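User: Hey, quick favor. My workstation is busy. Could you predict this chain's structure for me?
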Amino acid sequence: MLVVDHDRLSRSVKDLQIIKELFKDQKIKLIFQNSTLDLENEDDDFISDIQGIFSKRELRIIAKRSARGKYQKAKQGKLPLEGNNIAYGYKLDNDGRLVIDKEEAKVVKHIFSWLAHEGLSCYKIADRLNSANFPTRFGKYNRIKRSKKYNKVYENKWTRSSVKHIVSNDLYYKHEYIYAKDSKYSFIEPVCA
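Assistant: No problem, here it is.
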């Protein structure tokens, strides 16, 4: 079997042992860019164990560096997760910091108010948002929502899942609002304050 690099096979020592046993049973040799490992050979088997341990260590180092980078971004008030959609009610300023989008924040406040004070379900909140013509983010920017799989165009309207995504996102949960829960996003100004 051709593998680009040892850590592409597995970074888990436990999983690597399972894979190696399967390969031994089937008499499969591992071919890397610079070497070939015959798992029937004791030395090659040992080398693959050592490489597996190094791969596991490398994974931990990468995770620590990534966490450190996210923490530094968060301390600067920037969104710590690259490539994620910006939560409804927020936007990025010119410095890449998450700030409140006042127009969308009003919608978020309505959602939480209807949930807390009227006990509306996510379905009923979505219906109310649609009947009051509150735009979704796609609708606000006149973007087309299209299914990649079926190439179907969807209406830009609120759905139960879009409302549920907002009410279950701890970005919105602050001490002073509905849920008495600490937020990992305490560095960001709350929409619902």
